[in-house]
């Protein structure tokens, strides 16, 4: 199922809107809501980190659609946009339940380091920084939340997302191996 760059850009913009409630870990607690609405510091940090990871993945993958020279890198980026948009929707429901409304900020160091790269140079940096390293960190983030988080629904969402993110990490490792061999 191939999508045009225009469709993928629209998807990434929609994903940014979906991810908006996840970043910064702001909760209704700041607005004086009940104790049951508050997230523990561990869960707040997870929401902030998951929001940033997702925003970074989407921003970098959007860049890959126009900056990458390798077809496999662009296809990987397209898959990340689709899958991370779905993951963001699932987390968005939980974020809204806890009043998290601040927009996520992508990791400007990662995205900024990719913006001026093109072709094979972009491909290599994207694979290393976003595909492999980003997913390695995301696997650990979601694993930790699924095991030690305090909010039952958030733990369940992290556990449900973990196999998808782990699969992305495996795909990224295979992509890195394939590109290193060529």
UniProtKB/TrEMBL annotation:
<feature type="signal peptide">
    <location>
        <begin position="1"/>
        <end position="25"/>
    </location>
</feature>
<protein>
    <submittedName>
        <fullName>Membrane protein</fullName>
    </submittedName>
</protein>
<dbReference type="InterPro" id="IPR025419">
    <property type="entry name" value="DUF4142"/>
</dbReference>
<dbReference type="Pfam" id="PF13628">
    <property type="entry name" value="DUF4142"/>
</dbReference>
<keyword id="KW-0732">Signal</keyword>
<feature type="domain" description="DUF4142">
    <location>
        <begin position="43"/>
        <end position="175"/>
    </location>
</feature>
<dbReference type="InterPro" id="IPR012347">
    <property type="entry name" value="Ferritin-like"/>
</dbReference>
